[in-house]
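Review session, final week

We close the course with one last complete record, chosen because it touches almost every idea we covered. It is DUF6398 domain-containing protein, a protein from Microbacterium esteraromaticum with 550 residues. Go through it on your own first, then we will talk.
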Amino acid sequence: MSSPDSLINGLRESIRDPHPLALLDVASMLAASTEPDPMAELRAQIGGALDRPRLDRDQLVSAFLDVGERETDALLLVWARMLQDEVPAEQIVRDVRTRRHPLPRWLHNLDEVRPTRAIQASHVINDGDNLFIGVETPGRSFTIVLYIDHNMGTVPKDGYTVDRPIGDLISFSENQNVTDVTLTELLLEDARAQIEEVLQNESRLLHPFENDGWPSARPLLRWMLRLMPSGGTGYDRREWSDADLTELTRDFAASPHGTDADSDTLDRVETLLTFASSYGRADPLHWSNVVVEIMLVDLLPRKIMADQAYLRGMPDAMRRTVRFAHASREVPSEHTVSALAAVDHFEPEYLRLISEHGDESGELSLSVDEFFLRDAAARIGGFETLAALDDAPLPDEPLRLHDVPDAAREAASVVGEHLDRACTEFFKSVELRTAARRLLVQIAQVEPLTIVRGKPVNTALAICFIIGHANGLFSRSPAGLTIKSLSAYFAVKNPPNDRASALLSVLDINYYDWQDDGYPLGDAALLVSSVRTELIRVRDQLQESLADGV
């Protein structure tokens, strides 16, 4: 944090500025420096770089109230609106009014600050969007700009403010005659739903993006979100089933790009389409130069276990996939050229990586079917468990605390009560309640202090987060069954990732490996019958395929 003198001087200059945004920017930047960091503990656990110390917001507010200077009072008035229930707003307004400092008139009319428009600027290649939020103040208007990167998981990559009305920025963009960019007016409620989803995704990043304007602008953006109508529609993503991807592969085979493709090439193309449907935009036909880079230098070398001949054929299959996808979407040819150039550019690095991985492990000699069969076995505790797997529903089983140490039994019981309510009212599943109870007992037996520490409601939320993901409830959920709605049910503001990471570590599960591998817990007793039914189907299909190939 700056020295007290430099802070006062900076606030003084922002108050003198005729545009309200000057002070709003400073207030947002200071508020951002006091925001809790849900991933700090996890970064420390994995030995990452030490984080910058966070400022204590309560202490700052108390100190500023005691100081009682004109500059700090101006800041506090903004915070009373910007941070709302996170600061003692009524006390701030009451104390500031008694001091009667001469302040800009607009500071006494902060209830007139409001978002007015939302415009989305989307490029045809669809790697990301710019979202413009127009804001009106008692003085002048300004715009918040948020760049959302879809390849990295629909997260904020940049954000900043511009001291111009949104109409000026949109007119400027239109006058540039930029090709392949579409401007779309969004309902404010839809903009709110999309941005809330983006910020939720950001909270799960181990290393979120930071730059000159972000996350400094985030508290100001959150303020504007609260003022937007609720009930909007977030990002509309299609869930691609296995049948959908198989049909898409058939379309490829029938196209000019696949008529001469052999069975191995078709298998590689289907693998690429499946990967593209699971990462980034979760769209099998979204192929840009950035997607190509991510696939070749990260995902494919790490994720595909197959023989070297199969792996070396991936770049050629990717070229075919790019041409097919762009023809299907009628993407302008210059973007196809760019994506194909990226394949050429990153192919040598990809070949080097798969060669190194092949030298390090005999796993790459496995066939694709053998790899997926082994992966299915790992999800539930081994091949013997997979072979004997049944699809009987989990029983309505009580919370069995007799093997939990006495020191943790009371805390575990309270957590269990929260779990029972959530599984009954939110998930509406007796099977999931049993699975959640079992997981709670496992953790309490291994490390009882983990259950004693922390708030029971946060522990219960984290267990629901883990069990829900392990059973695919959030990835294949009906409308409303999301991490956000789960957190809202528990009335917990912070995302459950950090607490879930701590609980998983008790079971020797690394949070990011767990997330990257599709949320396996290695225990069939924690999976509901529908998930085990699907695993049985996959097991039988893979075994049949392997038998046919003998």
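Two points worth writing down before the exam:
Residues 333 and 488 are 45 Å apart (CA to CA).
The chain has 25 helices and five strands.
Good luck, everyone.
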